[in-house]
């Protein structure tokens, strides 16, 4: 599962927040949205592979994929616009079809968090999927 695309894929989403401040890199809101974005992007990549000549390399149990954002670091904070730049690892765990044991890999990702002009909403941009 350690197939890293050469292109950096970007996914984005809106996060409804509670309060006026941008969520920090390690906040539950930010981590949950990053996982949601990653799930959608990985599902899209699996579908593209299934519809290509590489369909044989896609595991049959992709629904068992569990994602978690770990090793989170704030690489930059701009207080003038209340934005965060974050680095982390995306931990991907899926049960091996033959051994039935969990197989875990990590993928380095970066993400930015910023407020939108709408009250209480945030934009997260994820790179490295």
Automatic annotation (TrEMBL):
PROSITE patterns for this protein: PROKAR_LIPOPROTEIN
Protein name as catalogued: Lipoprotein
Originating organism: Citrobacter pasteurii
Lineage, highest ranks first: Bacteria, Pseudomonadati, Pseudomonadota, Gammaproteobacteria, Enterobacterales
């Amino acid at each position: 599962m350690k197939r890293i695309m050469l292109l950096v894929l970007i996914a984005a989403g809106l996060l409804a927040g509670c309060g006026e401040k941008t969520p920090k890199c390690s906040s539950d809101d930010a981590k949950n949205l990053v996982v949601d974005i990653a799930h959608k992007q990985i599902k899209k990549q699996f579908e593209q592979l299934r519809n290509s000549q590489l369909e044989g390399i896609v595991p049959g149990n992709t629904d068992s994929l569990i994602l978690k954002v770990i090793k989170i670091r704030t690489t930059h904070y701009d207080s003038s616009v209340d934005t965060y730049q974050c680095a982390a690892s995306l931990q991907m765990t899926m049960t091996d079809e033959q051994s039935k044991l969990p197989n875990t890999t990590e993928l380095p990702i970066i993400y930015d968090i910023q407020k939108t002009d709408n009250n209480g909403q945030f934009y997260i941009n994820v790179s490295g999927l």
